[in-house]
Amino acid sequence: MTEFRVNRRDFLRTGAYAGGLMVTTSFLGSTLAAQETARKRNSKINHVILLYMEGGPSQLETFDPKPGTKNGGPTKALKTEVPGFTPADSLPYIAKRAKDLLLIKSMSTREGNHSRGAYLMRTGYAPNPTIKHPSLGSIVAQQLGNPDFELPNFVKLRGAPFPAGYLGVDNNPFVINRPGARIENLDYAKGVDKDRMERRMKLVREMEKDFAKERGEDAVEAHRAMYEKARRLMDSPLRKKFYLDDEPGETRKAYGEGQFADSLIIARRLIEVGVPAIEVVMGGWDTHDDNFKRSADLCKQIDQPWAALIDDLKKRKLYDSTLVIWMGEFGRTPRISGTSGRDHWPNNFCVVLGGGGVNAGTVIGETDEEGAGRDGRGNPLVKDPVSPAELYKTLGVMMDWEMNKEFQAGNRPMWLTEKTAKPVEKIFK
User: Fold this and answer.
1) Do 165 and 297 have their domain in common?
2) Domain with 313 in it: what CATH number?
3) Is 366 found in the same domain as 278?
4) Are 348 and 90 in contact (CB under 8 A)?
């Protein structure tokens, strides 16, 4: 997959093009809405960390193993303190934190295509060629974020950008593709200091006066707001939270080594100073061949860091106000292929939640002994299936989103979650 890089220059260009000073309508509406007084929320969840496993992790090699069966392969299961929570033997750290987590074994969709499945799981809506729905991170940024915050309200660690759709470009993710490394173009150019930059901005504001006469003051204000947001990021002392230079060695050792481990430390550092939405992407889960070794290796890369994140958040008294979600776009077939792999399987797969508002120590759903066969009508044999729409409705209830509010996507009214979806009450306390 081609990686995209978003840096300060991209951050500026997202909302406005320097030469023409163009502004998107959706951004304008979002910016004006952000100026209104924020409503009082009843939820104690202030942050969300999405751990997104790109490629579709096998449920049978993560959280729903079937040892000793025809479809189980060599993967063994670990016993935990929670009945039904029996993760694969390559997740020993997470197994010890079963009481801090909620497992959904019965996530179910009809989307077995990577891009469509990823869209559905990231937004709660099936892809629509005429509408761009916002991802979970953008929703959280818009609902929980502060438009005047020095740092971006949605930071994505690795992966391609996913636009915020009708919520406007100011809720787009700020993407860092090399977590911990120096972020390009975040500093002033050589020979330019704050005073010189301010003189340049004064010149821009003078040029904008003529534009305002022709296109309207609102467009200029939106453009100016985007530039000021980028300037706050450049000048903010909180920029150091993107890096790990001052992180104690003891903490880094607890998380372990690797890019995923570094990403989770940065995620914790960012929510600690107020960033509401973080997405951490880890690829490599499309295990059509050599599934067992590859899945075990990937699990080992996420196991210690994820467990350390739970411990770290609890230690800093942030776990109760932070919702941590682990998911991919779908699961893998119970049947093992001739190349020791598993193919795409949206019928049943796993999602794990922990932290704020979660009914931890709970398992939702159940599959048959072969990993969900099919009945005579072709339906998967899954108990208590959960759809993405139901999951997002549940998240909206837990975080007190404005789910009845209409947003405009072109000329169409849209809602953050499907209006007819029901929340899964077993998920929250």
Assistant:
1) yes
2) 3.40.720.10
3) yes
4) no
pLDDT band at 4 (very low <50, low <70, confident <90, very high): very low
Strand pairing category for 349-355 and 382-383: unpaired
Instruction: Specify the pairing of strand 322-328 against strand 412-414.
Output: unpaired
Q: CB-based burial of residue 27 (10 Å sphere; 0-12 exposed, 13-18 middle, 19+ buried)? A: buried
- Decide if 302 is inside a domain: yes
What is the tens place of the pLDDT at every residue in 381-422? 788 999 999 999 999 999 999 999 999 998 899 999 999 999
At residue 30 the predicted structure's pLDDT band, cuts being 50, 70 and 90, is: very low
pLDDT tens-digit readout, 70-112:
999 999 999 999 999 999 999 999 999 999 999 999 999 999 9
Domain end point (choices 242, 257, 290): 242
Q: Answer yes or no: do 276 and 366 share one domain.
A: yes
Q: What is the pTM of this model?
A: 0.86
CA distance 306 to 283: 16
The residue with tokens 């500026």 is 12
DSSP SS3 for 295: helix
Within the chain, what is the greatest distance between any pair of CA atoms? 74
Question: What are the distances in angstroms from CA 109 to CA 198, 256, 329, 391?
Answer: 51, 34, 9, 12
pLDDT of residue 175: 96
Q: What's the mean pLDDT in 252-278?
A: 98
Separation between Cα atoms, residue 60 and residue 76, nearest integer Å = 10
Task: Find the length of the chain.
Answer: 429
* 3 state DSSP class of 94: helix
Claim to verify: residue 173 and residue 102 sit in the same structural domain: yes
